[in-house]
Q: What sequence folds into this?
């Protein structure tokens, strides 16, 4: 037999009504959630933080790229074969000929290893020029003699040991270390010379000797540059100073 709700006793109907009231109380006004969400997304600080997030992402990408490039360059350089070109067995005959060349020209203060120095950047891992320099080709040797005679005379007058920190630079090496576009070092007519003492007053003394040799005694024509810890000398066709 079927019983309709209409005939249910009062106490049996009550729980249903209570449940209904409970649901009514919890029901949100229509559209409230949407309004709340819109309110949140239009909040200015919230928008700013989104922009910050985008900026942080871009910064992260840039830093990641730089780190990746650094690692790639380091690995690439590790892979690059490195030695002083003078120690390369393939250059042994050329180096022997160079030693004879020095002897023939009565060079006493500087030896082949000093005059064929590849330069500091060639030896320094991480430098753009690392491992890139070469020995000066044979056809440049005769043109180098004038500059070599100047530094022999400089060494004689200075009376103390000198370091040749740069001589010949292969064009690819000169570019890599940011050398002058038409650097005399690429023609092997320039030397950078430092006093072994490292003292600034000795650098000044070297520069003074060279100026006297060039401008007073007219022993040579060329460029003279004075730096913090070395002097540059070359024998280009006209005088230059820096
Ligand atoms: Zn120089």
A:
């Amino acid at each position: 037999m079927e019983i309709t709700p209409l005939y249910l006793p009062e106490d049996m109907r009550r729980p249903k009504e209570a449940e209904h009231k409970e649901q009514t109380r919890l029901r949100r006004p229509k559209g409230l959630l949407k309004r709340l969400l819109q309110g949140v997304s239009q909040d200015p600080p919230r928008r700013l933080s989104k922009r910050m997030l985008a900026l942080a992402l871009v910064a992260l990408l840039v830093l990641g790229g730089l780190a990746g490039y650094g690692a790639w360059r380091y690995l690439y350089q590790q892979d690059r074969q490195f030695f002083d070109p003078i120690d390369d067995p393939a250059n042994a005959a050329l180096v022997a000929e160079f030693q004879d060349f020095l002897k023939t020209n009565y060079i006493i203060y500087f030896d082949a290893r000093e005059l064929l120095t590849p330069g500091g950047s060639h030896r320094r891992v991480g430098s753009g020029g690392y491992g890139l320099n070469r020995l000066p080709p044979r056809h440049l040797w005769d043109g180098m003699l004038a500059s070599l005679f100047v530094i022999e005379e400089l060494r004689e007058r200075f009376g103390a040991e000198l370091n040749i920190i740069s001589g010949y630079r292969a064009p690819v090496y000169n570019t890599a270390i940011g050398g002058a576009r038409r650097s005399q070092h690429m023609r092997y007519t320039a030397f950078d010379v430092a006093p072994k003492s490292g003292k600034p007053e000795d650098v000044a003394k070297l520069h003074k000797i060279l100026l006297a040799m060039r401008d007073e005694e007219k022993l040579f024509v060329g460029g003279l540059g004075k730096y913090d810890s070395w002097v540059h000398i070359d024998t280009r066709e006209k005088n230059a100073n820096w």
Q: What stands out?
A: The radius of gyration is 40 Å. The first strand starts at residue 162 and ends at 166. The chain is about 50% helix and 10% strand.
